[in-house]
Amino acid sequence: MPVANAWQFGVMAATEIVTLRGEAELVRRAGALFDGVRREFLCVAGDPGTWSTAAAASGAPRSPVPGLVVRKLYGPGVFLAPGGRELLDRLAAAGAEIRISPAPPAHEAIVIDRRLAVLAAPRPAAGRARTYSVVQEPDVVAGVRALFETAWETATDLASYRRTPFPRLGGDERAVLRSLAAGHTDETASRLLGMSLRTYRRRVAALMTALDARSRFQAGLRAREILGGLSEA
After folding, report:
1. What is the distance between the alpha carbons of residues 109 and 121, in angstroms, rounded to a whole number?
2. What is the DSSP secondary structure assignment for residue 37, as one 8-state letter?
3. CA distances from 16 to 51, 109, 116 (A)
4. Which entry of 23, 38, 82, 182 is 20 to 30 Å from 201 by CA?
5. CA-CA distance, 181 to 79, in Å (whole number)?
6. pLDDT per position as a tens digit, 86-103
7. Gap between the Cα atoms of 69 and 38, Å rounded
């Protein structure tokens, strides 16, 4: 029986690695992937969309069994991603423990009941499917879990993180804020920052959502306030 079919029907061997290609396949397998979660569900994500679609398809983390520990670790960019704040609110309301790491996580992964890990490969070039590896080798799963625990200990819980005047920003976000504060046109700002116009506009849109700004002018004013506060911190 091929490896993929073996895993699909629940008889995956401990030494096998199953590769899923693309989000569509991840979603199709999500029911089996999360089936049987009983004690612990650990998840680290830089992009809130990496796992949320599959989790919604399975329903497992939405309706956890009694005693199930659900821990979600995100990078600071979750606050700037479309729907990121709403996702955090839903997870917190469902009882998940949430922490924010000081920098975007280098790898995205899920660990289930200390028996199975799902590793997301780096995002590929446009037009190519992202791959996800399902691993059940005990030593590998233990290693992934140990890395999660290390990152978890250095992260800040969601409530404490939200008490800061504004979520901590990375270098790219600060650069976009400076461009907004300076009143540059999109074309000028993207050229100065070495970004494509599309990427710059996407970052501006995310920042406007995070700033609760209804216009570029309002976003520029808020950006000046934030940058002033950051320089004083």
Report:
1. 9
2. -
3. 22, 17, 11
4. 23
5. 20
6. 888 888 988 899 998 877
7. 9
Please give the angle made by the CA atoms of 39, 43 and 44, to the nearest 5 degrees: 155
Q: Which domains does the chain have, with CATH numbers?
A: 3-162 (3.30.870.10), 171-226 (1.10.10.10)
Per-residue confidence (pLDDT) for residue 219, from 0 to 100: 77
CA dist 208 and 202 (Å) reads 10
State how far the Cα of 58 lies from the Cα of 29, in Å rounded to an integer: 9
Say yes or no to pLDDT of 10 above 50: no
Question: What's the confidence (pLDDT) of residue 184?
Answer: 87
How confident is the model over 179-191, as a mean pLDDT?
A: 88
Please give the DSSP secondary-structure letter assigned to residue 2: -
Closest by CA position to 78, among listed 130, 155, 185, 175: 155
Q: How far apart are CA 83 and CA 96, in angstroms?
A: 17
| Bridge partners, 100 (sequence order) | 74, 156
Long-range CB contacts for residues 220-224, cutoff 8 Å, separation at least 24: 220/180, 220/181, 220/183, 223/177, 223/178, 223/180, 223/181, 224/181
